[in-house]
Amino acid sequence: MKKSAKYIIIAIICLVQIHGNAQHYTSVMKSMKDLVYNYDSKFISLNNDIELSYIEEGSGNETILFIHGLGSYIPAWNKNVESLKDFYKCIAIDLPGYGKSSKENYSGTMEFYADVIHEFCQKKNLGKVILAGHSMGGQISMVTAIKYPTLVKKLILIAPAGFEVFNKGEKQWFRDVMTVDGVRLTTVENIRLNLAYNFYQMPADAEFMVKDRIEMRGATDFPAYCYAITQSVKGMVDQAVFDFLPDIKQPALCIFGENDNLIPNRFLNGGPTRKYAEKGASRMPNCSLKLIPKAGHFVMYEKSEEVNSIIRGFLR
Questions:
Q1: What is the third-level CATH fold of 3-315?
Q2: DSSP-assigned letters across all residues of 156-171
Q3: What is the DSSP letter of 61?
């Protein structure tokens, strides 16, 4: 394997956020429902036998619905929910195939996830919501805003996927290299390296993600989680959103870390994050863009106080 190809694989798997150091943790997790969250987990039954896990904190006249990224889960939003719940009703979900939600052979398309969000909001009688999406969750949020414009009041896009454009060959490459075994058998060395790629400087309090990722490897539903990741990657490249960004009329806030190592893909596109952030944000009629220095892909966790302040200003 060429050196550049090896590093491209590492960069993609970074988006999966698979972390850990097996020397420090022993797997005791029977099911991913054993994951320990900061907030009480709730469950709701949706169509197609989907059991969706979510947390609900705070109160207010407006609801923020948080949607995690590829391979991630509800706790990615811990620092944001904890701050924003004093002003808004904050709901974060585990997408189907992730976290504590059910895991079956879901399609993984962006429209599939948009339909799940729509049904969840309808069953919860939430009315119009503010969607906050990170990475893949950002792309899902944009697709939801386009497909269900009366559902989405505003968008908060944190390092959203979808601002890059890939040609046909590059899209096929993504589909080919992201395999279930590739995710399942990631080495311990690459697991920790991949986590570091998500940050400008990895914070000590992100260690719980390491512990969770190590322990979930022994869960009976872990292979299904790995399958969900591969399907999600296919869904992102098959349903690119870039050409449809002008159709997003809702007020939108877009936040990127200036030192995002994952967007753009340095081997396929390259260049500074700012270039792609500005290009994508400029295509949405009512989008404001904020770039935060010394912050990486997980900007909402790494620079949570600054991000939360920007969000509050935008919503006010």
A1: Rossmann fold (3.40.50)
A2: EEES-TTSS---HHHH
A3: S
Pairing type for strands 42-46 and 50-57 reads: antiparallel
**Residue with the larger pLDDT of the pair 58 and 13:** 58
Q: Which of 249, 238, 274, 67 is nearest to 162 (CA)?
A: 238
User: Domain limits of the chain?
Assistant: 3-315
Burial pattern 207-243, b for ≥16 Cβ within 10 A else e, equals eebbebbbbbbebebbebbbbbbbbbbbbbbebbbee
- Single pTM value for the model: 0.91
Q: Which residues of 245-277 are buried (b: 16+ CB within 10 A; e: fewer)?
A: beebebbbbbbbbbbbbbbbbeeeeeeebeebb
Report d(CA 256, CA 300) in Å as an integer. Answer: 9
Highest mean pLDDT of the ranges 112-121, 187-196, 264-273 = 112-121
Q: How many CA atoms lie within 13 A of 73 on its CB side?
A: 27
* Residue 312 neighbours by CB distance under 10 Å: 14
Rounded to whole angstroms, the Cα distance separating 289 from 282 reads: 9
**210, 20 Cβ separation under 8 angstroms:** yes
Beta bridge partners of 255: 158, 290
CA neighbor of 198 nearest in space, from 17, 72, 67, 73: 17
